[in-house]
Every structure is written in C-alpha cells, then in structure tokens.
Write a structure and sequence with these properties.
- It is a single chain.
- This protein is an alpha+beta fold.
- 39% of the residues lie in helices and 19% in strands.
- The chain has helices spanning 2-10, 42-46, 51-66, 81-87; strands at residues 20-25, 31-36, 71-76.
- A hairpin with a 5-residue loop joins strand 1 and strand 2.
- 13% of the residues are buried.
C-alpha cells in the first residue's frame, strides 16, 4: 500500500524524491498511512478544496477494504512534521 500511495503522489508533486509514506499500526487494528512531502508540495497533494486529498483517501480506504483491512490516510504538513514527531501528536486527517 505504501508503494501505491507513493506512486500516485510522486506524479503530483514537484519534488518526488521527498515523498515518503509511513505505516502506523493502531491498537484498534486500524492502519494509518502518513504521507510526507517536500516543502512547497503540500498544496499540490491537497488540491483545490481538498479534492485531490479526498480522492487519494478514498482509494486507500477502498484498496484496504478489498484486503479486509481498516485504513486511514494522513498528510503530514512538512513545516509541522518535526513538531508532531517530538510530542507524539498526529493530525486529525484520517
């Protein structure tokens, strides 16, 4: 799934080498895929009115459901990435 998300996003951004996807397994059995992009690429992944991000999220949830999994998708803000990793917080985009 990480490769699938990375493939899609790398074709949307200006800096594909900065794209990475992190898998986080929750105690509830849900899997969260956290997308990290380079500076300046966040808007391209979110898209107008969030439509691109919603579409990616829909694909992730659909693929996971076909595999019998529960999944979520988060886009990590590159400017706040170091803040969430130091205090253990996550965004609410799942």
């Amino acid at each position: 799934m990480e490769d699938f998300i990375g493939f899609i996003v790398k074709h949307l951004v200006d800096n594909p080498d900065a794209v990475s996807v992190e898998r986080v397994d929750k105690d509830s059995g849900r899997v969260i895929y956290r997308l990290h992009v380079g500076d300046g690429d966040l808007g391209q992944v979110i898209g107008k009115e969030g439509k691109t991000a919603k579409s990616i999220r829909t694909l992730v949830i659909a693929v996971a459901a076909r595999k019998g999994l529960r999944a979520g998708f988060e886009i990590v803000d590159p400017e706040r990435d170091h803040e969430t990793s130091s205090d253990g917080g996550t965004s609410q985009n799942d």
